[in-house]
């Protein structure tokens, strides 16, 4: 968690209001602002049962450079358990989307032109190139068009009129796997399960958590 005083000041410059008598000096006001920002960050991804007294105790101990009251192994186990609970709750929340994506993939896999890899990635060869295949360490140039399974477009280099360049190992798992199978000059349609795409987090407002994605990908060139 990173606290930026200048960033905080910039935000609150837009929201001038009366200052509480309790925070009458710039030191108190800045201290309160840092704490407020930390609270906002915690609330952006809270978990059920979070305890403000324990949270404040952790902040105070860290600031005062005293030994933590909970050892690293116990903390690791606690973080792991909380993560599992949050993931389970999110899976319940997005159960319909998960089931819809799986049903789409199950039906799609029955088509003769679709290949399913051991990871669950599905692809369809639209045009077969004759060039080299990139490796995980390659950088490539591609054109692509990405949609949700309902056909809604969330990103397209074709629409921007500008190919994209990126490292093969620096994209979602489904792309990393597919690109290493594609000869240069190929155009494939990828059907990417959520666990090979953006998973439980989603991506921005356009791609919800647990979204199955469809991409047309054209491998133009291996840059290095």
Automatic annotation (TrEMBL):
InterPro entries: PPIase_dom_sf, PPIase_FKBP_dom, PPIase_FKBP_N, PPIase_FKBP_N_sf. Its EC number is 5.2.1.8. Residues 137-223 form the PPIase FKBP-type domain. It comes from the Bacteria. The keyword Isomerase applies. Keywords: Isomerase, Rotamase. It is an enzyme of class 5 (isomerase). One of its GO terms (molecular function) is isomerase activity. It catalyses: [protein]-peptidylproline (omega=180) = [protein]-peptidylproline (omega=0). Belongs to the FKBP-type PPIase family. PANTHER family: FKBP-TYPE 22 KDA PEPTIDYL-PROLYL CIS-TRANS ISOMERASE, FKBP-TYPE PEPTIDYL-PROLYL CIS-TRANS ISOMERASE FKPA. This is Peptidyl-prolyl cis-trans isomerase. It comes from Fluctibacter corallii.
């Amino acid at each position: 968690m990173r606290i930026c005083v200048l960033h905080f000041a910039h935000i609150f410059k837009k929201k001038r209001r009366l200052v509480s008598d309790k925070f009458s000096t710039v030191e108190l006001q800045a201290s309160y602002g840092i704490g407020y920002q930390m609270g906002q960050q915690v609330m952006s991804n809270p978990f059920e049962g979070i305890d403000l007294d324990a949270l404040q105790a952790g902040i105070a101990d860290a600031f005062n450079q005293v030994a933590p009251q909970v050892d690293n192994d116990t903390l690791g186990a606690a973080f792991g358990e909380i993560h599992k609970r949050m993931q389970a709750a999110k899976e319940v929340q997005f159960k319909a989307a998960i089931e819809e994506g799986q049903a789409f993939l199950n039906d799609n896999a029955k088509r003769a032109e679709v290949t399913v890899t051991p990871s669950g990635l599905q692809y369809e060869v639209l045009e077969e190139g004759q060039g080299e295949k990139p490796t995980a360490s390659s950088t490539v140039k591609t054109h692509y068009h990405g949609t949700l399974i309902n056909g809604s477009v969330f990103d397209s280099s074709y629409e921007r009129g500008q190919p994209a360049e990126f490292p093969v190992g620096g994209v979602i798992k489904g792309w990393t796997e597919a690109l290493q199978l594609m000869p240069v000059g190929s155009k494939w349609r990828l059907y990417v399960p959520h666990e090979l795409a953006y998973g439980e987090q989603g991506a921005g407002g356009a791609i919800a958590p647990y979204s199955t994605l469809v991409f047309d990908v054209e491998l133009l060139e291996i840059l290095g």
